[in-house]
Structure formats: structure tokens, C-alpha cells
Amino acid sequence: MPRTYRFLFVSTPVGPLGSGAGGGVELNLVNLARSLLERGAQVRVLAPEGSCSVDLPEGVIEAVAGLPPPYAQSQRRDQPVCFSTPSLVANLWQRAAQLQEQFELIVNWSYDWLSFYLTDFFRTPVAHIVSMGSLSDAVDQALERIARTYPGRLAVHSRAQAQTFAFARAQMAAGRDPFVYLPCGVDLSRYEFVPEGNGSLCWVGRIAPEKGLEDCAALAEKTGRPVLILGHLQDPAYWQQIREQYPRAQLDYRGFLPTSQMQRLLGHCSALIMTPKWVEAFGLVAVEALACGVPVITYRRGGPAEIVRDGETGWVVEPDDVAALATAVERLDQIARSRCRQHAEEHYSLQAMTERFLAWSEQIVQDPIPAAR
Ligand code: UDP
């Protein structure tokens, strides 16, 4: 049993916890915090104003004010680092600096250059959970520096995500991997296994171009199957464009729902469709679907392709190939829903994720590397 640690989590600044703007980071952060608290650890979460979670006791979340940074996904790679002021990211780290002596480890969940850059300036070690693949030259440089100066402080969720970073590929070619791997897990007791699908398809995620919802709309038109859509509406113009482009698709959008309601609707569907246009770092919704017994049909791109066992827990098809998605839909009867649930239980429990996290954090706390100045 690892000794109890005191953890300070710095949340993603892109939106309040509970809004869905932070994608899978929100669920991961809250799940891990809850699981650590249940094991007797101390956890404080610094998060944007308006953050809330029914799963965390009062007083765990501390609200920090300021303006969020732009979404990294909508920026150019060579975009200079820029922050609106008063900057939420800066304020989060200012508060972390004030509190640092009370904690043994600071865990950064944000994907902002400043969050990585500041690693050097903290007396308490800062560990980083990198939630997306390579999107920005400035972030890549900051990560490369951390990998060099503080080995073992960078965690990613999948091999595919790690491979998007040029510096990591170079190091891997030389036999060194700069990353620790932390596949995500969920509290399986919160996902009800549903033995039969109702014929509908489901698509879950932020509605934003990198998520490729248009391909699922094209699939809906091609197959005539209704698609239930759940998730945060990040880009309303993009959604409108899809509606206009695929008028015959039966798209039933229900908004962003709490996990309990989301899993109830998802669980009755015949498949989850994942059509990412970017290298998805993990794809937590794939695990959530499997936990309900729902097979996943995904492109062979990014984290979901590492989660889904082709022909066993769903189908993995060539990226951007809507006809291949349609063929996979026809073959859903070959997938046993009980096997999907079993796969989630074997590999993606919250307990397994917590243990992986604790092993990582223990290594850092026991072997903190002096800051290079
Ligand atoms: N989600 C939710 N309610 C919804 C739709 C989605 O809570 O109605 C959550 C889902 O549980 C997951 C996240 O939104 O945690 C999406 O995460 P994912 O890793 O799939 O993609 P990301 O948005 O991080 O790229």
C-alpha cells in the first residue's frame, strides 16, 4: 500500500469542471481525485470559477478567476504563445505557488505552454498529465525541456499520442522513451451493462472539427440508422454546417449530460462511432461505451484504435473511410457485448488507473530532481 500523499491538482483552464469544455480531462481529473481521497490521500483541485462536481466533497475544488486561453486545437502550430489578461493559467499557477509547501506533488492537467514552462520555478515537484498530442511548437519545446531536465515527469495516455511528438520519436529511436504511460480508467460500477442494442448508433464527444462528426453524419445518411449525439457544443457553426450538409441524417443531439444520464442513453445503442480527424490522445468515451457493453467502431487513428480489439470489442477501420464504417455497422452482430464489458473490466478500471498513477507519483516524490537553473 503506497504511503499517503498530498496532491495539488491544477485543472485545465479551458472551461469550468462540469462544463464538458475540458473533454475527457474533466472526468479523469475528478475520478482520480475521488479515488485518491477514498484511499486517504489529501487532494486539492485548483480549477476555473464555476467548476463543480457532485463527486468531490465540498472544499476540494478551489475556484480561481481569470480568462481562459484559446483552445490549442484551433491554433496554428507556430502561433506565438498568447494569453488574455487577467490570465486564468497565470492565476492558477500563482495560487499553486502560494500553496506548494502544503503538498508533496503538484499535478498539472493543463496543456498550456506556461504550465510546462513553470516546472523549473517550483520547489514542490510538478508532474504533467499531457492530455493531447503535439499541436504547438512552443508546447513541444517546453515538453522536450522537461523530458531532458526532469525525466519521468511527463505522462501521456497512449502510444499513438506519444508518437505525435517529434522529440519523443527521436528519443525512442535512440532507445529512450520520455513518457510514462497512463491509460485512463473509469468507475465501472457507474456504467450499467446493457445486453442488447436498440439499433441506434451513438456519437459522444465535444462537437468540434477535430472530432470528425461529419463522417458520422455521412454514415447516418448511408445506413439510415439514427445517431444519438451527446457532448459539449464547442463549435456551433461547425454543427450547423453538418446539419445543412447532411439533411437526411437522423441526428438526435441531446447536449452535454452528466455521466449517469449519458451512460444510460449510450448503453442502449448498438455501437459507438468514433471518427476523429486528429490523433485522439486516448478517447475515454470508447472505454465508457465498452463498460456499458457497447461495441466501438473507430478509425485506425490515435488512442481509440489501441483500446478497441478489432473483431472482438468492435471494428477498427481505415481513417476517413465512411464506406468501411458502414460495412462495420453491418457486422455488429459478430461482436459479443459481454466481451466488451469484460475488456473494460480487465484493462480500464479506475482502480487500475489509480494504481498506475500512484506508482508514478511515488517515483517522483521519492526521487525529486533538483530544479536546473
Ligand atoms: N461526456 C459527458 N457527457 C456527455 C458527453 C460526453 O460527460 O453528454 C464526457 C465523456 O464522459 C468524456 C468526455 O466528455 O469524459 C469526452 O472525452 P474524450 O476523451 O472522448 O474526448 P476529448 O473531448 O477529451 O477530446
The CATH class label of the largest domain is Alpha Beta
The rough form would be described as: globular
Largest sheet: 7 strands, parallel
What's the helix-strand series? Answer: EHEEHEHEHEHHEEHEHEHEHEHEHHH
Total DSSP E strands: 13
Ligand names: uridine-5'-diphosphate
**Helix fraction?**
25-40%
Give me the oligomer status: single chain
Low-confidence stretches: none
Q: What's the number of helices?
A: 14
Strand proportion: 5-15%
Structurally, how many domains make up the residues?
2
- CATH architecture annotation name of the largest domain: 3-Layer(aba) Sandwich
- The value of Rg in angstroms is 20 Å
Write the layout of secondary structure elements.
Elements: E1 6-10, H1 24-38, E2 42-48, E3 61-64, H2 88-99, E4 105-108, H3 113-117, E5 126-129, H4 137-149, E6 154-156, H5 159-163, H6 166-173, E7 180-181, E8 201-204, H7 213-223, E9 227-230, H8 236-245, E10 251-253, H9 259-267, E11 271-274, H10 284-291, E12 296-299, H11 304-307, E13 314-317, H12 322-330, H13 337-347, H14 350-366
Parallel strand pairs: 1-2, 1-4, 2-3, 4-5, 5-6, 6-7, 8-9, 8-11, 9-10, 11-12, 12-13
Bound molecules: uridine-5'-diphosphate (UDP).
Uridine-5'-diphosphate binds at residues 20, 23-24, 27, 204-206, 230-231, 256-257, 259, 262, 282-285, 288.
